[in-house]
Amino acid sequence: MDWHQRTGIKGAAGCIFITAIAASCVATIGAFSQSQDSELTFLLPAGRSECFFQTAPKNGTMEVEFQVVAGAGMDVDFSILSPQGFHLVSEYRRSDGVHMVEPTEEGDYQICFDNSFSRFSEKMVFFEVILDLPANDAGADDEWAGLGEPENLLEYKLEDIRESIESVHRRLERSRQMQAVLRAFEARDRNLLEDNLWKVSFWSCANLLVMVGVAFTQVYSLRRLFDDKRRVYT
After folding, report:
1. pTM for this one?
2. How many CA atoms lie within 13 A of 27 on its CB side?
3. Smallest Cα–Cα separation from 94: which of 69, 76, 118?
4. pLDDT, tens digit, for every residue of 127-171?
5. Does the domain spanning 34-134 belong to CATH 2.60.120.380?
6. Phi and psi for 116 in degrees, rounded to 5?
7. Distances (CA, A) of 18 to 1, 11, 158, 171
8. DSSP class of 95
9. b or e along 106-145 (b: 16 or more beta carbons within 10 Å of the residue's beta carbon)?
């Protein structure tokens, strides 16, 4: 009878442990949804400007990173406007930049890129918006605390598991953001290399044609110098 009781207690502890782990994952996933990221690569025509709108809550954090990946000059004008229409950020003829708005106001922020100073060259622009919503973990913490922690739980602590999962998620999210930025850098470098390759090839061909022309001109001039057309009478 004692053996059956111990087995039942261990089984109940195992069920409580599994239930707590499942609740931990649900609470952690709920916390993950507090971060909203978006990224876009678009073509900005010459002499035009484009604006994008990002809805933000109150007391949040918004980070905007942009980079010009293709186009002559590799630069655009950049600005961020608040929901009330105030200019929070204004930059001119920049190829990249990172800007943080904290705390945010409730409403639609306006993110604008201006290429009106360029008459002929269009630009390809990459930008990313990282929006962190205000934390609201009181309900999750209460639910977490209500689960309790059974005794002899193989020395696992639910709080440690939750912190580990959140740490892994933050690092993975940061890695994804860095990879997106590195892809933008790689695209810009590739476009620069292709443009430089075209310029080098063009001027190399031009120099080759000039050298061939000069060589033929020199040969023709030398032959004219030694070409004696006078008649000799005997």
Report:
1. 0.55
2. 23
3. 76
4. 888 888 765 544 445 554 555 555 555 556 677 777 778 778 777
5. yes
6. -70, -20
7. 26, 11, 11, 26
8. S
9. eeebbbbbbbeebeebbbbbbbbbbbbbeeeeeebeeebe
